[in-house]
Design goal:
This protein is mostly beta strands and about 375 residues long. It is built from 2 helices and 18 strands.
Length: about 375
């Protein structure tokens, strides 16, 4: 079973000040092609709907963690008004025709959860999570025949945006051992697209630029359950179905893609007072998005452990599986992570930090990613 959030008293004012400072930090400049190059294909790169605690353990704790916006039933474990926010800064290396390789950085707030009980057995929550990342930059060079003469042109396309999952959910405890949950999801967001063409002969041809904004819209529902088989063993199961993702340009629908049915489960085991281990699996039917976006069904797994006291645990984990969009099959992903946690003020506040290393591979593409994670949880 999940360990209770108790901790030493004192330090609340210092914790609050630190949280405000940390959450105020943002990157000093926006970099082109910030997100994964695997997001250029298809609809984008799916986000990880996990808190820092869960992600530092490879994502294995996500089905059991109320501050990971994956399973609604986990909200039933929240017995006081609480909020949790996740921040992640990633560095990825991608090939560049000019310098051979370039390192790019992106900073995101991929998850936020706010929840609290409204009845003795009923907890209601909400928040947001990243559903799809779709920020990238592409530069291509070609030769066109203009007025009978060859002309070298350079095209640059920048896309900045994605799809956000806004959730309203509830967790209800049916008994001491069983909790169930359900949620409604609004998928919303936009992409700002800038296309620029430059000619090698700038004296005869002007640089031209086109700007557009695509708005996204969709809906989803989710259901889940948590079952305690004993004091030391808990199992979880979840199911989610999403509607079509509609893309609108200037008020006109330009694309509709079916979104996947998702389902999965997990097992959590506490073999000792200061050890918790978990494993989880998930399937998603992304191939329904259509052949035109090179979509594939995906299977993902994760395993992780939390060692030490509840006040200052150490976490470690591993994960693997596929990404949904790619040529000649689904790209693969494998990752390793570790992290630390620290509670303050009798469990009213918590800071989690973690680091994750991912290796993604697809047809003609390899992408190593380092991510530094920071999470703040407040229970006033």
């Amino acid at each position: 079973m999940m360990r209770r959030a108790d901790g030493p008293t004192g330090g609340w004012a210092a914790f609050t000040t630190l949280a405000v400072v940390v959450l105020s930090v943002s990157p000093s400049a926006r970099l082109p092609a910030q997100d994964s190059q695997f997001g250029i294909q298809g609809l984008g790169t799916p986000g990880k709907q996990e808190s820092v605690r869960a992600r530092s353990a490879g994502g294995a704790f996500a089905p059991f963690d109320a501050f990971s916006p994956l399973m609604d039933a986990a909200l039933a474990d929240i017995r006081r008004l609480s909020a949790g926010v996740t921040n992640g800064t990633s560095w990825r290396d991608i090939p560049s025709p000019d310098s051979g390789e370039v390192t790019l950085r992106t900073t995101r707030f991929p998850a936020l959860v706010l929840a609290g009980p409204i009845l003795p057995r009923l907890t209601v929550g909400g928040g947001f999570a990243t559903y799809l990342d779709r920020s990238y930059g592409i530069t291509t060079t070609d030769t066109l025949i203009i007025r009978g003469s060859p002309e070298v042109v350079t095209d640059q396309i920048k896309n900045d945006g994605g799809v956000t999952d806004v959730r309203v959910a509830a967790g209800f405890r049916l008994g001491r051992r069983l909790a169930v949950g359900a949620g409604i999801h609004l998928l919303t967001g936009s992409s700002r697209i800038v296309a620029t063409r430059r000619f090698s002969d700038s004296s005869d041809y002007r640089t031209s630029t086109s700007r557009d904004e695509v708005a996204y819209e969709g809906m989803g529902t989710s259901f889940s359950a948590l079952l305690d088989l004993g004091r030391d063993l808990r199992v979880a199961g979840w199911y989610r179905t999403d509607s079509k993702l509609r893309a609108d340009l200037n008020g006109r629908t330009v694309a509709e893609n079916d979104l996947p049915v998702s389902f999965g489960g997990g097992v959590l085991w506490s073999p000792g007072a200061q050890v918790v281990m978990a494993g989880s699996v998930a399937w998603r039917t992304w191939s329904t998005a259509g052949a035109g976006v090179n979509a594939h069904d995906t299977f993902n797994w994760s395993f992780g452990a939390e060692i030490g006291s509840v006040n200052s645990p150490f976490r470690v984990g591993a994960r693997g599986g596929q990404l949904p969009f790619g040529l000649d099959g689904a790209p693969t992903e494998i990752g390793y992570s570790a992290g630390l946690g620290r509670q303050f003020a009798a469990g009213r506040g918590r800071i989690d930090i973690g680091v994750e290393r991912l290796q993604r591979k697809g047809t003609g593409l390899t992408e190593p990613v380092w991510t530094l994670l920071l999470g703040v949880t407040v229970r006033p």
